[in-house]
Amino acid sequence: MGASGWNYFVPFRQDIEQALPDLQRRVFDDGDYYRDEEDEFIDDSSLEALLACKEAEEFWEVGTHSILDMDQVIDADRPEEVGAIRALSADEMRTHLGSERPTRADLERAFAVPAAPGMGPPIDSSYAKWTGRYVVLYRDGAPDEIAIWGASGD
Description:
The protein is α/β, with parallel strands linked by helices.
């Protein structure tokens, strides 16, 4: 099947780490994830059961092709990790979004503009499967929402 890219917008919260489980709950409740009926090792009877399946190596052969494949939120200064959503650094925000306080319009422009040579596009992390990115977006100078995107699944 190959990896799938995904993206989400959630209302801003001071505790960005709490945004991940809240978003995962929403995606699970909406059924907005990939589930191969032949993969008997994935138990999606509850969100907790599904997330526990990530302990099995078989899970990582398929995944859910969604935010449900992510485990943690990490700072921009840490290297990429499988299952982690990493913040864009200030330098990445300036380079790709034109500001350290980007708006949704800045992000939408970045979606539409091809990446500079030698740089991965900020909005498509398919070059780093099983990882994600996030950035706080501003409206009228105040934090407004969090954009989260990545790629996962096989």
